[in-house]
Each structure stands twice: as structure tokens, then as C-alpha cells.
Amino acid sequence: MTETASKPAQTEVWITGIGLATSLGEGLDANWAALQEKRINVDEKGFAPYIVHPLMPVTFDSQIPKKGDQRQMEAWQRIGTYAAGLALDSAGIKGNKDILSKIDMVVAAGGGERDLNVDTGVLTAEAKGANAPGFLNERLMSDLRPTLFLAQLSNLLAGNIAIVHGIGGTSRTFMGEEVAGADAARIALSRIASGESDIALIGGSHNGERKDLMVLYEFGDFNLKHKFAPVWARKDHAGFALGSAGAFLVLESKAHAEARGAKPFAKLSSVVADLARRKTPGDMAATLEKLWAKLPKRDGKGAIISGATGAEPATSEEHGFLKGHAEFPVRSTGTMFGHTMETQFPLGIALAALSISRGALFPPNDSTGTEIEMQGAPTQIVVVGAGHWRGEGMALVEAVS
Amino acid sequence: MTAPRDKLGRPVVVVTGMGIMTSLGNGKTDNWAKLVAGESGIRTITRFPVDGLKTTMAGTVDFVSVDPFSSTGLSERMAELVTQEALDQAGIGAKADFPGPLFLAVAPVEVEWPQRRELGRAVGKLDFNYDDLLRISGGGKYSAYHHRFMFGSVAAYLAETFGTKGSPISLSTACASGATSIQLGVEAIRRGETDAALCVATDGTVNPEALVRFSLLSALSTQNDPPQAASRPFSKNRDGFVMAEGAGALVLESYEAATARGAKILGVIAGCGELTDSFHRTRSSPDGKPIIGCMNKTLADAGMTPDQIDHINAHGTATPENDKMEYNTTSAVFGDLVSKIPVTSNKSMVGHTISAAGAVEAIFSLLTLEHQRIPPTINYDNPDPTILFDVVGNKARDARVTAVMSNSFGFGGQNASLILTREPA
């Protein structure tokens, strides 16, 4: 039902722009160089015992010139708006009003950071006996910044991208953690492939340096603590290290790209997604197998880029699935970039397209033997995105023939 | 005899099941009776203390119990009930086996104050910070809160309960979310990916912080007394919207699939359109071009001209800016017809159900088509002289209605419109 594989009569969809701002750096060259050098940027102290992959600082002014715009956003929106601008630059359409006025945006988003001082101010005052019926109301009315709400609203990432970059097409925001990123790509692809749309901006952004988010994931004991290890080496020390990143892609019909002389990084051939019940062991792996079978035929030089989180039991289930396809070299974005939630899947597509366009898969970085060296240029890369709790997605990125 | 394809050669998308809940009550029958009677669901809030708030009323849904209570839990329960009503009417699929995908419009999810306060109490100290909260959050004691406050949790629950297919999509386009959920369903059927789609929109977020947030943006009415008179769309003395809760569910099918199984067709989603406004985070572009473009795109999508629309179910929030902007943009699209087309705002009675509004109002539009009766805009006793709509003021009006345009506009530059008709064009 959710299959969006391009049928022969349908339009080929190209990836013509990539924007990355991550813990490894800004832009394609910096990220590629860090991957080549197996450089990982983790902070084990700032949030100890929790571990995060902090954003490599960027000069927001270069993509968000108005300070007023920057002030209206919280970090997650600034990161995303910045990365979206990089993607538009990469596609060569920044400032091109004709094209920007018809771009269809599909953004995968969570929510914005809370004001930690307001929260703890209320809670500690209550601990000290403040119990008037209107106490919470009065504190919130006086302490919350009036525009903070807009910096928290999920659809205001897309709203800020539209304002800052002048996008006047359409705008849809998908929520739902990891799989929201896969669904954003899936819907945008199927709209372009069917001729409903010519060009789309998709992606997401995440600020992993947030204690309010850590509380939420700590409820389920999902945070990686004390010591960093590659995703595949966390079985007895499970968890994810939140990462900060923005990853955006410009997707475009082949005809639209050719008409304006744009060159593709790769083509996005298929995105599929599902919701495994995950009630019994093996449910998730079975769903991944089902999605794998739905992808178009893979007869080229293939590889897999996984968004495995390091959380259990999801990571072990995915590992089992990958073992069944051991002929495909695997790379983990979770090891290199941390867990960037809604952004992980667009990030995976971005790295797949980048690897194809640069003629090499980035090197393995793993102590368990799950990731093996790859010789030669990949022509087909499967992106796998299995959520830490729910949701499974898969995409096939291919070289343009 | 009607063609299974529209003028653009795409499958015609019809509605075969509807479920609705608002502050007026549960279900189509109850809601419609109260809506055409001009009853208000707005009342003084009793769910939590309102001391210190500027706005003390809302269209809360207080007749559904959720334990432990959370706004997300209420959204989920309302969505479940309206979905069941829609499926009962459609008679499609089998129990827990809906033959298509789910598109869910839902308010953004976050940890809420009752749970945060529970953590605060559990710290057991007088002075503490987030590190102390973090330290006690793990260990499994609060694992249910992880699931509850995942953005995808409501959709996952509905997908598992009703057996929808594939990956359910949770979406937010602010106050246009309900319309977007319908649009996603329409597109999936038109592309031939599915014969049926379940489109649900729900919002149960009347809680202290949500009220404060909208208050701080000066978006809410403060005419608290009497609460029933607070929501005054198109009136000179309108002063903001009234927050409200509710949910709507629609079963969409291709005309071909619906007729093949002998389903009763309740109406047609003839057109959908959307257009982003990049002017400002909360205000519309002063020239109204994005909204005008949105309405025009929707007419084009339906293959219709303005003279074929004989009723407008307005966004009509009753904020000073929205209603004026909506009139100006509607005038630009409809020209001289603007004063002849009956317009109403359901929000005068049920308030603004935010994420659910687009679906709730689409369902009211379909019921308007079914009953050939337009629900009133209540509290319309002091018309804004600059808004020259033919407002269906205070009393329901019998009318020949063949095609309704339903508009939704939201923060973040979100504009979406739908055109609903009784029969395929």
C-alpha cells in the first residue's frame, strides 16, 4: 500500500541538492572529510553521564542574515533553516524566485526546546510550598517569552524556512520521530514521480543538546551513558547518543532538472515505510525483510547505510536483518553523527547520494566486524531507518545511468 | 451515471464514512442537531484552575474520560471514537483491518505539566535542576510516559487498533492540519496507491500552557462572560478565537471502489489546494496573495469556477485580522459573488479545534450538503461593516447547496482549502 517505487511510466526523481550541518561540520566537503578520517565528535562531559554529538558551530548569519529571524527561532529551527539554505545553494536555486515559489516542502520535525529555567522555577517553587490554584498559570503568563511557542511549534521549522529563504510553494510537516523522515521522502517522491509536483525540499533538523529531550528518552532508558562506542558495539551497553544535525535534500523530476541544467548527485528510486507491531521478537526484522523485498531490483554494486540507533532491542533486530544481507557493506550514521531522530533518514539519503556522486562509500568505523571495507564505486545504496520505538523506513538511492 | 474519473482524468474521491466529536457532543447526530439549533459548546473551564488567566473559557470535551489524563491521551481517545463512528458508517474492511493508510492530523506532542510535576515531586529536594529530573527519570518507573509523549504514539495506536496499512503519517500544518490530512488521503487515492484512506484529525490540548501560549500571542478572545458569546466571527466586536477540542474522521474511497462494494456515498472531495505564505510567522501577507492563490488552486484542482461554489465554510476564527483578511481574499477570488454566497463559521459555536478544525469543518460542510441547511454563525449581532459577506447570522438557513469551499489558515503560513460536493462533477 505504501509502496512508491517509480513505475516505468513514471518520472525519474533526482537528488539535485544536499545541505548538511552536523556534528562533523558544515557542508558536503567537511562532512565527507570527517567521514574519511573516521572523525567522531562526541561530548562525554557537558551532559554527563549522557553523551551527545554536538553541532559543529556554524555562522548562522550566512544562511539566516537577519538577526531578528535568528532570535525568533530556537536552535533546532536555526540548524534546519541553515541546512535548508545549504541544500538550496547546492541545487543552485537559492534566490531563484520562479523555482522557490513552487517548491513543495515536506519537513520531518519534532518540537522545540523548552525554557528549562521556567520549568525548574515552577517545580522548585512548588516543592517549597507554592500551592495556590493559579500558581502555574501566573508563572507561565509572566515567565514564558511570548514568541517561545513559535520556536517550539513543529510546523514552524517549515515556516521559518519559508520566511528566510522565500519559499512560496507548499509546506507540510510530518511528525512521528525517525519514520517521519522516511515518510517525508516517501510522499515527496511519490508526488514528483506521479507528476503532482516538479521539485521538493525535504529534510529535518534536530538539536540533541537538550536536557528536556533527554528526560523524555530517559523515561524509556534509551540514552547512552558514560562511554561512547560504535552503534554495533553497544549490545551490553545499549542506548543512543543524541546528535545535532540538519539534513535537507532537493528532489526534482529529471525533466525539471535537465531543463535548468542541474546535475544530479544520484536518483531516489524508491522509499517504502511500515509500522511493525514489535510485540514479539522478530516482528521488526520481518518488517525490514518485507520492505527490502519491495525495493526495486538490486543488481548493481550495492551498500547499506543504516540509521540504527543503538537502542535495544531494535538495534539487535536490525543487526540480524543486516546479517542476512552480508554481501552489502554497511555503514552506520548513528556511530558517526549520533541519533538525530527525525533527521536520521534524510541524513542517510544525503550520505548515500554523496557516496554515489563521489564514487566511493565512506570507510567503516566499527569494532565488531559488522561494517566491512568496500572497493569500487557504489551504484545502489539502500538507506535503512528503523525507529528506536516504532516505525521502519527504507529507500533506494541509485547512480543516474 | 457518473464517471469514476474527474475532469483531469484522476479517480474521483468520495466520502463513505464520517465521525465527529466537539464540545457540542459525540457523533454526527448530536453535533448536527445542536449546530443547526445555534448552540454553543463554549464554557468556563473546569478541568484546571483558571486563576491568573486572561481567558477562562474554551470548547472543552469533558464527557470523555482518560486516565491518567493528558492532552495527548485525550486526543488519542477522541480520535479512536470518531474513527469507530466513521468505520461503522462506511462498513469497509473488517474489524481491525482497514484496507488503506492512515493520515493523522495531531497537535505537537510534549511532556505535559502533570507528568513534569510528578517528576518534580519525586526528586525529593527543595532546590533542583534538570539534571536532578534526569537522574530520576530512568529505571522503568516512567516508561509509559516515553510511549505517551512520542509524536507518533497516537498514530501508532490508531494504526494498530484499526489495522490501517503501511506507515501512518502524523502531520501538522497548524490550524490547517485537518484539511492537510484529507488532502494527503485524496492524493494517495488519485495516484492509485490505494482505494481507501482513513483521514483523522484530533486536538485535545486545552491545558494551562497551551492557553497561556496563545494568550501571550494575543490570539484569544477574553470575553469570558458569558462564555457562549465569546466567539464572534465577522462581528465588529470580535476579539480573538476560542480554543476548543474535538476530532473528525473521514473514510475516503475511490468512487469506483465505493460503488463496487455498494457503499453509500456521502459526498465528494472535489478539490484540494494549499499555498505557503512566507511573509511572517503568525500574520498573513498584507496583499493576501497566498490565500488568494490557495483558493484559486483549489478551484482549479476541482475543475470549477467561483460561480459554481454556493456556500463557503469559512476559517472564521474571530480574530480581528483573520476575518478581515479572509473577506478581502475571498472578495478577490469571488468578485461580485462574494456578497451573494452564504458564508458561515462553525467556530462561533464549537470554537477553534486547531489541529482538528479542517476535518471537523469538512464534515460539517458535508452534513450541510446532506441536509441542504446551513448552520448559523452565532453571536452575529454587531456585524463588522467592512466585512460584506452574506453571513448566515444566528439562525440556520435552508439553501440549495451543491458545492462548499472550506478554508483553513494557520500559523507558519499554512493555507489549505477544500471543495466538497454532493455528487461527482
List keywords for this structure.
heterodimer; A: 401 residues; alpha/beta; 3-stranded mixed β-sheet; 15 helices; 36% helix; 20% strand; B: 425 residues; 12-stranded mixed β-sheet; two-stranded antiparallel ribbon; globular
Q: How would you describe the overall organization of this protein?
A:
The complex is a heterodimer of chains A (401) and B (425). Chain A has 401 residues and is an alpha/beta fold. In chain A, 36% of the residues lie in helices and 20% in strands. In chain A, strands 1, 2, 5, 6, 7, 9, 10, 11, 12, 13 and 14 form an eleven-stranded mixed β-sheet that branches. Chain A has a three-stranded mixed β-sheet with strand order 3-4-8, with no helix packed on it. In chain A, α13 links the parallel β11 and β12. Chain A is globular, with a radius of gyration of 21 Å. With 425 residues, chain B is of the alpha/beta class. Chain B contains 13 helices and 16 strands. In chain B, the strands form three sheets. In chain B, strands 1, 2, 5, 6, 7, 8, 9, 10, 11, 13, 15 and 16 form a twelve-stranded mixed β-sheet that branches. Chain B has a two-stranded antiparallel ribbon with strand order 3-4. In chain B, β10, α11 and β11 form a beta-alpha-beta unit. In chain B, α10 packs across α11. The interface between A and B is large, with 90 and 87 residues.
Tell me the β content of chain B: 15-25%
Our Rg estimate of chain A from Cα atoms comes to: 21 Å
Mean pLDDT score of chain A, rounded?
96
Helix content, binned percent of chain B: 25-40%
Euclidean distance between termini CA atoms of chain A: 28 Å
Major sheet characteristics of chain A? 11 strands, mixed
What is the number of helices of chain B? 13
Helix and strand succession of chain B? EEHEEHEHHHHEHEHEHEHEHEHHEEEEE
| Pattern of helices and strands of chain A | EEHEEHHHEHHHHEHEHEEHEHEHEHHEE
For the record, give the distance between the C-alpha atoms at the N and C termini of chain B, rounded to a whole number.
Answer: 11 Å
Going by helix content, strand content and strand pairing, the class of chain B is alpha/beta
Number of strands of chain A: 14
- Coarse morphology of chain A: globular
Oligomer: heterodimer
The class by helix and strand makeup of chain A works out as alpha/beta
Helical segment count of chain A: 15
Percent helix range of chain A: 25-40%
Strand portion of chain A: 15-25%
Question: Overall mean pLDDT score of chain B?
Answer: 97
> Which residues of chain B sit in consecutive blocks of at least 5 with pLDDT less than 50?
none
